[in-house]
UniProtKB/TrEMBL annotation:
GO molecular-function terms, A-Z: phosphotransferase activity, phosphate group as acceptor
Residue ranges of every copy of the Phosphoethanolamine transferase N-terminal domain listed in the record: 58-206
Full protein name: Probable integral membrane protein
Record SUPFAM superfamilies: Alkaline phosphatase-like
Domain Sulfatase N-terminal, first and last residues per copy: 233-519
A biological-process GO annotation: lipopolysaccharide core region biosynthetic process
UniProt topology in membrane: Multi-pass membrane protein
Transmembrane stretches, start-end: 16-36, 48-69, 76-93, 123-139, 159-178
UniProt GO cellular component terms: plasma membrane
Alphabetic keyword roster: Cell inner membrane, Cell membrane, Membrane, Transferase, Transmembrane, Transmembrane helix
Keyword GTP-binding: no
Length: 532
């Protein structure tokens, strides 16, 4: 009994909240404090400043819990925060990611196979020792019984003390915090659990607001005036393909041997709308530029597929070997190719090249219509790059054969990633070969990756950082256009060639797809059309 009292002493609600806040600050904020120390090195003049951030974090976290928790909700709230924060701490420490609302949306939309790619013994260890164990202690700790008046007065006193402590510390080091909040806003993004809780609030607000909002119809006036030549366009949406690892862009390893042999226009300066699939894919097919795009706007506004559908002259098919279309293909024909039921080429996972099987049947089914086929790749989805290709394409070695990228050398991480690009090169060349069969039609293959990828530069892995702080590796993406001879006769290829090294972005996709089909509509902007 004495041992039990030592391990699980009776505490007041305020004491329990404080100890949990202290525990969170010490063990779950390695990422935040390492970033703070990067900006303010532990030298004599900075020690007090850095120490003050520790005090402020404990005070603010305790204040947050003290405002929310009651005798009956305190333990459920603390346990939920501990469990979730153990997982967020793992990903922040290992991959240097930020858990904002877009990352939460990306996580929720991730399928089971992708989730398994992220599992590891270390993640289990974090969850057990930073999640389950302290949660069990919280659960077993007895709380003091007090009457309402005493409990209220105790809570008021602790709230006043915390407010004075937090604001007093900030005031005491006023010049430091003026700089901290003005010049280094990014540092607060690493606060655990504060930032992910606020991001979750934003995500929930975005998900449930305006449930009755009607879908904004777009381009109902769309029509194709010149239908003499049938057009077949293959739009390939890549996954996590960064431009500086394309040999087409001068990368020292030959990651695009087959594409080098094709007559393509390589867009060397293409930039993504976002840094995650959940953000970029809806954005790139929407009418909105990156500067005025939002999740809500995309959700309640028709996209370029809808505009093409309004012409009644374009048959559209979306095939997906990734998680899904992120809502883009909701109103067109959609086929899931991440399952052996549909994809005939599957081993440890279903392969992108399987998406080409049976496309001739879809094209033949619509003999009098133009065709748009969207192929959404698995591509270079991390962190298990070694799974993204077959053994035949393991050209660059040694390879990081684990999802624990930080345990591998940068060379082996890059090699696995580059082998996946090599496999994509094979798939993209096969798509072009498939398009070449339709000599009587104007055929095109347009490729754009959804976003890039960090491979350990400055300790950052994967993608998903807020756009304004994300490195170019997560935003500068691979992209090209291939046209057959019939299509070249319809377009001014010199104008297209002139844009190969111009800075372009996902903003251009909406209008370029309309331009490829010769669609006339009020929503078309020729200034954002790559082919005109």
């Amino acid at each position: 009994m004495k041992i039990k009292k030592i391990i699980f002493p009776t505490l007041s609600q305020e004491q329990l909240i404080f100890f949990v806040a202290l525990w969170l600050t010490i063990f779950y904020n390695t990422s935040m404090f390492s970033h703070i120390v990067d900006v303010y090195p532990l030298q004599r003049e900075n020690i007090l400043y850095v120490a003050s951030t520790f005090v402020v974090h404990v005070a603010v976290t305790t204040l947050f819990f003290a405002l929310l928790a009651t005798r009956y909700t305190i333990k459920p709230i603390l346990i939920c925060v501990l469990l979730v924060s153990s997982v967020t701490a793992y990903f922040m420490n290992k991959y240097d990611v930020v858990i904002d609302e877009n990352m939460i949306r990306n996580a929720i939309q991730t399928d089971i196979d992708e989730s398994f790619d992220l599992l590891s013994l270390k993640l289990v260890g974090y969850f057990l020792f930073l999640g389950v164990l302290p949660s069990y202690i919280v659960y077993k700790t007895p709380l003091q019984t007090r009457d309402f008046k005493s409990a209220l007065w105790a809570r008021i006193k602790i709230l006043l003390f915390l407010i004075v402590l937090a604001f007093g510390t900030v005031a005491l080091f006023g010049k430091f915090y003026a700089s901290f909040f003005r010049e280094h806003k990014i540092l607060r993004f690493y606060a655990n659990p504060g930032f992910w809780i606020d991001s979750l609030r934003i995500f929930v607000q975005q998900s449930f607001e305006d449930k009755n909002t009607k879908l904004q119809v777009l381009g109902v006036d769309a029509k194709i005036e010149d239908n003499q030549t049938r057009k077949i366009v293959f739009m390939v949406v890549g996954e996590a393909a960064r431009a500086d690892h394309f040999s087409l862009n001068g990368y020292q390893k030959e990651t695009n041997p087959k594409l080098h042999k094709e007559d393509i226009v390589n867009f060397s300066q293409m930039y993504s709308c976002g840094t995650s699939t959940a953000y970029s894919v809806p954005c790139m097919f929407s009418i909105y530029n990156r500067s005025d795009y939002s999740y809500k706007k995309a959700k309640y506004t028709e996209n370029v597929l809808d505009v093409l559908k309004h012409t009644k002259d374009v048959a559209i098919l979306w095939r997906d070997n990734n998680s899904d279309s992120k809502g883009v293909a909701t109103r067109v024909e959609y086929q899931d190719f991440k399952t052996p039921k549909n994809n005939p080429i599957c081993d440890v996972e279903c392969r992108d090249i399987g998406m080409l099987e049976g496309l001739d049947q879809f094209i033949a089914k619509h003999p009098k219509k133009n065709i748009l086929i969207v192929l959404h790749q698995m591509g270079n989805h991390g962190p298990a790059y070694y799974k993204r290709y077959t053994k035949k394409f393991e050209k660059f070695t040694p390879v990081c054969n684990t999802n624990q990228l930080e345990e591998c050398s940068k060379e082996s991480v890059a090699n696995g990633y580059d082998n996946a690009l090599l496999y994509s090169d094979n798939f993209l060349a096969a798509t072009i070969d498939f398009a070449k069969h339709y000599t009587k039609s104007a055929t095109a293959v347009l490729y754009m990756s959804d976003h890039g990828e960090s491979l350990g530069e400055h300790g950052i892995y994967l993608h998903g950082l807020p756009y304004f702080i994300a490195p170019d590796a997560q935003k500068h993406i691979g992209s090209f256009l291939w046209l057959n001879e019939r299509y070249k006769q319809l377009l001014d290829t010199k104008k297209i060639e002139a844009k190969k090294d111009k800075e372009l972005s996902h903003d251009y996709l909406f209008h370029t797809l309309l331009g490829l089909f010769g669609v006339k509509t009020k929503v078309y902007d020729p200034k954002l059309d790559i082919v005109h």
